[in-house]
Amino acid sequence: MQHSFSLAMGLALCILILLNANASSAARLGKRNKSVPMPKENNVTTYFVKNGLGRTPPMGWNSWNHFGCDLNETIIQETADAMVSTGLAALGYKYINLDDCWAELNRDSKGNMVPKASTFPSGIKALAHYVHKRGLKLGIYSDAGNQTCSKRMPGSLGHEEQDAKTFASWGVDYLKYDNCENLGISVKQRYPPMSEALLKSGRAILFSMCEWGWEDPATWGPTVGNSWRTTGDIVDNWDSMTSIADENDKWASYAGPGGWNDPDMLEVGNGGMTMEEYRAHFSIWALAKAPLLVGCDIRAMDNTTYELISNREVIAVNQDKLGVQGKKVKNDTGLEVWAGPLSGNRTAVILWNRSSSNATVTASWSDIGLEPGTKVDARDLWEHSTQSSISGEISAKLDSHACKMFVLTPQSS
Ligand SMILES: *[C@@H]1O[C@H](CO)[C@@H](O)[C@H](O)[C@H]1NC(C)=O
Ligand SMILES: *[C@@H]1O[C@H](CO)[C@@H](O)[C@H](O)[C@H]1NC(C)=O
Ligand SMILES: *[C@@H]1O[C@H](CO)[C@@H](O)[C@H](O)[C@H]1NC(C)=O
Ligand SMILES: *[C@@H]1O[C@H](CO)[C@@H](O)[C@H](O)[C@H]1NC(C)=O
Ligand SMILES: *[C@@H]1O[C@H](CO)[C@@H](O)[C@H](O)[C@H]1NC(C)=O
Ligand SMILES: *[C@@H]1O[C@H](CO)[C@@H](O)[C@H](O)[C@H]1NC(C)=O
Ligand SMILES: *[C@@H]1O[C@H](CO)[C@@H](O)[C@H](O)[C@H]1NC(C)=O
Ligand SMILES: *[C@@H]1O[C@H](CO)[C@@H](O)[C@H](O)[C@H]1NC(C)=O
Ligand SMILES: CC(=O)N[C@H]1CO[C@H](CO)[C@@H](O)[C@@H]1O
Questions:
Q1: Which 8-state DSSP code applies to residue 390?
Q2: Any bridge partners for residue 175, and if so which?
Q3: 242 alpha carbon to ligand 3 midpoint, in Å?
Q4: What's the whole-model pTM score?
Q5: Ligand with an atom nearest the CA of residue 274
Q6: Whose CA is nearest to atom 5 of ligand 4?
Q7: pLDDT > 70? residue 290
Q8: 95, β-bridge pairs
Q9: From 170, 204, 309, 390, which residue has the greatest number of CB atoms within 10 Å?
């Protein structure tokens, strides 16, 4: 959400296109696949700041991907209403999060942030009350700099305690903390003070760090925040989504209950990808234990969008109590297998066709950490059907950019 990033994104896209070119020439040459080990159970006992939040990845909605700076309290109230009336709230989507542009440009005479009078005339406290009455939680946004990315409101650098107290007094439940206008100060000096200020604020406020993966936040984030962005901003297209999924994947072993890798918010429903691409986006985010923050206008979403984001079996993978991030375990020239362990000795698997030519995608038991003789029941989370007594491997023929997602449950011998 910052302009300097468009150049970086452009470069990233160029590199991606080069990689794709390599992938297809590799395919023609019949090059070998790359295999990586399955993730193991994490030792999560050492994890996290003591706020007790985010034991499973946070779920909800954020204004930015669809509304940008054009948000106001009516939109937020109607979104909260829609979250309940559509049944999404009951599926676990509980955070209603404001992004940038909710405040006046200047602080008041006491140095407090002030809700923007023209768009939030009732104030944030009233909005939090509105949201809480519907059984939901309210998230707010600030920045570890002297202004936010829009430059239309103040940042919290140097005002951490005062702003944390203000947010707590309003009844805020979640803070997304961005990285613009940061005066060149190290991330590691700018984020911990807000973490401490929130802990001292007297209210349980989930801390969502958004430093764009600058200083490998996975390596220090678990003691500072409940989630940390591992990448730059997502854009509503296939190249952005897939490259972000890959970047985030590198940090899988650092995530666990209380602290999650965040590959940015969902674009499902915003129109820039096909249904199959959005299905893959949602499936991979769920498997990777990413925060599931819907980024479309849920007041007006179409049936396809609803069908994707309301799949309770996929959501259950994301919210599984084991809390281990699934990862890419095989890339056979763009025919990929992603997998990870679930509670109850189960395994979640995604077969994903990212290549430029037709092929069947196969996960053999050795790819996904199962003993050779294991027989499983394979639940197809998108077809809602079960194949019993599969052994050795699971495979699928897939449409362009499509994926299949399974949960494998070993049969008791
Ligand atoms: C896991 O954490 C516990 C408690 O902190 C510790 O005693 C144990 O050695 C850790 N195990 C590994 C494999 O790191
Ligand atoms: C919010 O925006 C919508 C649509 O742009 C408009 O209808 C509504 O009146 C606005 N509400 C406030 C409080 O500005
Ligand atoms: C933020 O800091 C920069 C660099 O010191 C300065 O140029 C700018 O005026 C500051 N902006 C605000 C709103 O304080
Ligand atoms: C969405 O589904 C509902 C009921 O399932 C149906 O009445 C409606 O026509 C559908 N809308 C679209 C745009 O397909
Ligand atoms: C997948 O593997 C091919 C070569 O087998 C490689 O060119 C490509 O970069 C890989 N893609 C990813 C996303 O790892
Ligand atoms: C690739 O798959 C699509 C859809 O399954 C099919 O229509 C098409 O004929 C296939 N192309 C080739 C070259 O096999
Ligand atoms: C888990 O499943 C594997 C087969 O994949 C089996 O060998 C193992 O005994 C099972 N463990 C438990 C605790 O059920
Ligand atoms: C795999 O995806 C490519 C596009 O990346 C598509 O052309 C092809 O048809 C897909 N394969 C199958 C078997 O559908
Ligand atoms: C399907 C396939 O070819 N899988 C192979 C991928 O590569 C690993 C080792 O690099 C092999 O063990 C797999 O059999």
A1: E
A2: 140, 207
A3: 36
A4: 0.84
A5: 8
A6: 303
A7: yes
A8: 60, 137
A9: 309
